[in-house]
Design brief:
2 domains, binds zinc ion, Metallo-beta-lactamase, Chain A, about 20% strand, five-stranded mixed beta sheet, about 40% helix
């Protein structure tokens, strides 16, 4: 990962993608400039297309020009904020989610995006008729740029307490520090407001948030569970902190990833309060763009399209299979390094 970071010349947000979303081990990357694009520009946020482009990037190490252009263009990343449940809104951009939870005593934000998109996040909250000053807690899933890069902005504009794991905080501080020579340099406050650990329950008014440490994507990755409301119904939802295998450093990290996937699968299959809703941190990973359209045309009495544990289990199985393959690669690599 460090080598990748050093190797990549900066191209818009291309280096962030290495930080968060590409799935496969990335060979020595060769980043093509956007102006070299020969394919049609990417428009909107089509999940399957974006997924395929990220997969391509993960497999080849070459950033597809249309993906680089799309990630780097603030206009391309603007997407309409929407109400996903009675108490949950999506206020993110095309390629990264930010979720906003409304409680009886203020708002909880999950993930902060990064500049200039944190400004868009704030704008999205206002577009929904809500007040960013009401954010009481900003829960951050892990220390990568695209989720933690907006912490300083959120802190300066709102009353939010920043919430992370201790390791996540250290990751974010280290990543912010190493970004200082890049055009997208970002900063972190000196101290966390609230460090959480596995099993903690955060309460704001009528809402409880359950903390699950799910290391793997990074060591400090955390997932958050909460109940989402749809009329008289309530469902347990989860924001899974990170799904990519792109920041893997050794086989132990992959083992942790697999354990975390298994743990989330167990939460989905639990007999009591099973997790039924996936509030994805990257919209393309679960087809959120298309689900949003189904939500818009949903008729009274129809099931909520985000209540789909089968889709979540299927996604987790695919991720687990990918991680199992990756584990074998990492174990083989470790053997070659051992004298
Ligand atoms: Zn990440």
């Amino acid at each position: 990962m460090n080598l990748l970071k050093k190797t990549l010349t900066f191209l818009g947000t291309a280096s962030l993608v290495v930080g968060c979303a590409a799935q496969a081990r990335t060979p020595a990357p060769v980043v093509s400039a956007p102006h070299a694009a020969t394919t049609a520009p990417l428009t909107g946020c089509p999940s399957a297309t974006v997924n395929a482009l990220f997969e391509d990037f993960g497999n080849t190490g070459k950033m597809p020009p249309e993906l680089a252009a799309w990630l780097s263009d603030p206009k391309s990343q603007i997407t309409e904020p929407y109400q996903a449940f009675d108490n949950v809104y999506n206020v993110g951009i095309c390629w990264v989610s930010a979720w906003l939870i409304k409680t009886s005593e203020g708002l909880i934000l999950v993930d902060t995006l990064y500049e200039p998109y944190t400004d868009q996040l704030i704008q999205n909250i206002k577009l929904l008729g809500l007040d960013p000053a009401d954010i009481k807690m900003a829960l951050v899933t892990h220390g990568h740029f695209d989720h933690a890069g907006g912490i300083s902005t959120i802190k300066s504009l709102t009353n939010a307490k920043i919430v992370m794991t201790k390791t996540g905080w250290s990751e974010a501080r280290a990543n912010a520090q190493s970004s200082q020579e890049q055009p997208t340099a970002w900063t972190m406050p000196t101290a966390a407001d609230l460090l959480v650990k596995d099993g903690d329950v955060l309460t704001l008014g009528d809402t409880k948030v359950y903390v699950y440490e799910t290391p793997g994507h990074t060591a400090g990755t955390v997932s958050y569970g909460l109940d989402v409301k749809d009329g008289p119904q309530a469902y347990r939802a989860i924001v899974i902190g990170g799904l990519g295998l792109n920041a893997i450093e050794d086989s132990r990290q992959v083992e942790a990833y697999i354990s975390s996937v298994d743990r989330i699968k167990a939460l989905v299959s639990a007999s009591e309060n099973p997790v039924l809703v996936n509030l994805a941190t990257h919209p393309f990973s679960s087809g959120l763009t298309e689900i949003k359209e189904r939500l818009k045309t949903r008729k009274p009495g129809q099931p909520h399209p985000l209540v789909d544990p089968e889709a979540l289990l299927k996604q987790l199985d695919v991720l687990r299979a990918g991680a199992t393959k990756r584990l074998a690669v990492e174990q083989a690599l470790a053997k070659t390094k051992t004298p």
